[in-house]
Amino acid sequence: MRVGSLDATILVDGEGSFATIGDAFPALSSGEEWRLPVNAVLVRGAGPTVLIDTGLGPEPRAFMPDAGARLLAELARTGVSPAEVDLVVHTHLHVDHVGWDGSFPNARYIVSAAEWSYFMSEESLAQRPHLRDRVEPLGEAGSVDLVDGELELAAGVRLVLTPGHTPGHASVFIESEGEELVVLGDVAVHELQLADPDLVYVSEHDPELSAATRKQVLGQLADRGTDVIVGHFPGPGRFTRQGEGFSWSSLAEEGEPAVE
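Now predict its structure.
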């Protein structure tokens, strides 16, 4: 999809399940399987080639082992090699967002300072082997740049802190020639959290802050009619206000053009 002079492409690393609805959202008693895509986003233009998040990573792996591992193939389909990725921007450091870290030999890795401080502590590393395997070597190699607050990473690509899901969770605002697309990460992980923004997801670091961020950010995007890519929603779409919450309209399902 075009955003002014920039091109943004959703790359689906895999799709599968790791929990039931009831497991993921303890307030709900449902045994329904939660199936979700794991998205990354490639942004290209005249400046640096930017990859937002890196998915689940190669197989075999412990988390969502049967969901697929397609990111590098999806990247190749766009005509981009791993060596051509200049910036890898992380919305956060959960296991399904850093899986292919280390696969991009010329990239700088962008992480919010608050996220790094929390997740790269000795206590966290002991609990999260994926960080030791994928992320810690990048820090040791000097390939990680920490961002404290909002920052323009490249022309038209801006990192904005949207905390709650994790301590330093961030979203990426892409703006060019008066057009806008937001890569929201995991500010919302399921449409259930749109209908009820206070619905707690079991992996949220700060449920109260997460809900406040969700209401504020989704409200702003709904009011502006902004195109959005969410970490675990299929395709791009838009939010609209619905009562005390929101609804999601998939642009792909509607056949409506995204940003032209």
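Confidence is low (pLDDT under 50) at residues 254-260.
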